Write the structure tokens for this entry.
Amino acid sequence: MNWKTILINFINGYNYFIIFYFLVLNIIYVIVLLLSIKGLYYYLKRSQYEGYSDLLSSSFLPGISILVPCYNEENTIVDNVKSLLHLEYNDTEIIVINDGSTDQSLEHLKEEFNLHEIDRVYKKQIETQAINDIYLSATIPNLVVIDKENGGKADALNAGVNIAEYDLVTAIDADSILETDSLLKVVIPFIENPKEVVATGGIVRIANNSKVDRGFMEEPKLPKADLPRFQVVEYLRAFLTSRVGWGEINSLLIVSGAFGVFKKDIVAQVGGYTAKTIGEDMELIIKIHRYLREEEQDYQIPLVSDATCWTQGPSDFKSFVGQRKRWQRGLMDSIINHWKLLFNPNYGTVGMFAFPYYVIFEMFGPLLEFLGYCSIGAAYFLGILNPSFVLIFFLLAVLYGVFISTSAIGVEAYAEQRYDSILDYIRLFLYGVLENFGYRQLNTIIRAFSLIGYTPGSNEWGTIDKGKFDNDNSDVEL
Amino acid sequence: MIELVINGVYILAIISAMIFFILLAKIIYDKVEDYRNEKLIAELKNKINHYLSGGKVDISPQISAKKKRLLEGILINYSKQVRGETKKQLQELAEKTGVIDFKVQHLVNSNQWWKKSEAAYMLGELGSDRAIDALLDFLEAENSDIRYQSALAIVKISGSEYLELAITKLLELDVYPRDTILRLIEEVDEEIYEKMQPLLRAEEIEKRIIALRSLGLKQDFRLLQWIKEYLKSEDEDLVKACLQAAYQLGDIGDDSYFQLLLTTKNNSSFQVRANLAQVLEKFRTEQSRLELQELMTDSHWKVRYTAAESLLKHGEKGVLALSQQLHSSDQFAQDMAWQILHQEITFDSLLNNEELDNYQQLIDNISQYLEMTNKEGVKCELEDYLN
């Protein structure tokens, strides 16, 4: 057997593997999609008799500490804090953690909220970088600002957990905006099942070009630029047809760092957010799963599908690439740190389904897909390519992508209908088709190269310039 | 293989196209419905307003199910905004227009648990007595949502009348968190002591706790005898409930009661001790402050923290007591006292209030502390104040 035959056999074998891989992946997608639809259906039915207004006025609504980690967010931090002050929730404490910003973030906060330095007791339950100063506002009694040495987002969040007064803490990115009733909705699972619910997450959506007024989402709009539009479809797919489904089998491995609520005790018990990773949100959730399964405790981590947080998606190519690299590296950090969970029945559905899915399809998936494209090239040069099969298979893959995206948009239209215009939905569908021709491949390549060039143990902040929320619905300033 | 893939392509293309068109149709349908409903809602609102201003009922009970749903939505929205006579008028209108019967039918006949739960919720919001009998039947429902929504609706409609029954039925199912049941009791405006007595006497600790907590929130002083009795219990949750109720009742000027509360000071549970520290906030006496100063050196931070906050609420004497803690041998007590005093100095101009009885002593305590801890910045601020 010469090298060419070996190569041909290898490529043929790999192609069969890819077909099998594609089949399994898509079966999982369909199962998770069905679970999501079931979860959303019952959630929507139950929300009709939830009695939000009764809950809001109840003295039994638990207090919550809102942690806002901030690193060089001078453009958005003041608006963000203002929007948090107007949430429909009675008992909150807002803790902004300035993680050694090199811009004017702290100065803007000091000026806007009349901050005064206070000597405050700092319970160091979780180790963090040194705290420089703690400020209280003369105008807003429930606002605390911590100024600390730079240590990364996880370190900033841990400082917030250390100082938080309430039993529930939520981490909200400084460049994100919560809908006014989102916090209440995401806390409801803690009220309904206070013993078992240890964390909840909400839905994150792309806010570029939406009408935002002084920190409030006035009118959601589709972004004008292509890149954020693709992200709208991608976020809908990720949250409404994937994470909701994983949540249904209590195997949610990511509660987005942009909007999640946790019991403070459990965060402290697992040692807080892990500083030496940039995927601190996923890392924390996996640590919680792992800890509670090892302790054999009953627990739940549900996703609340209509608790919405709006965020700015990167709208330039460089920021986008940076964001995706960070996500992939964060994913890999967590998977490597918790390798023990893989196919381990002691960790239940997390060990047997969710974790293996993330390892095989999310971590290695992009590389396998990238190699699939390479093998098509190699097959062409070796003269063994069946163009009609490749074309039809590609079409199948595209249509599958379209099917999943359309389902996500359909679920959105059925459950939420945040966009007013019918044209917006037609555009979304169009971008759900178009993303399969370039955007998806771009994502694959970025993530595949991140996998190859992976180096563990970073705690840096992302330097994605997401711009400022705009009040006149014009393009995002960059 | 190719044929299989081609079939897959066809199927997916058809499914995707179908989803797209169904989605489009759904959005268009919703928009058209919204537009139509707007007109219907405006028409119904006019008729409701006409009725409320003394006119006749101009809505037939024979209206379509869709119109009834819109009507019930409007009536519920109105009900949430009004009280008294107007609310009664709305309930009458709901009965006369058949909305109540419509919802009772949903509750009784629907096969879906969520439809039954929703119907019970709506009946509670509409508030008509006519629904009570049907709702009482569903206190036995196996589904926890139906049972809770029925109990809530009964309480909203009839106040305390069936309260004990509702709580007992909810506790039978053992799935509702305590606060959820307390939230239900919160809906009752009238006094509930008589209804709660059987629960206070019950064997089950959970029933006693719920009765203590709810009566505490109502600040019903008849609760005192029960607090005195159950404070001696070995059950931690029951003792905590007693202290929570005691916090609501405040200082009743009974020293033996105060001394009894203090027996929990050495309880092994830090939560009980923290609850005690909170209760002591309400007892503005010298002994209470001494106890709080002692609790500020407790082994658990939560107790120390609560004690410091309670001291602050004792006014100027509490502030003075806190300033004495600045020289405590316990570092945390010192820090905690300083945190609160620093906050008061910064925001409440404590040091500008020279009329305080022990002003000089307070200033001396703070000055010595600043000297001792080398807090130069604050020391300068203090000197500026004093000059």
Summary: Chain B touches chain A through 53 residues (CB under 8 Å). Chain B has 21 helices and no strands. The two ends of chain B are 93 Å apart (CA to CA). The CA atoms of residues 370 and 379 of chain B lie 6 Å apart.
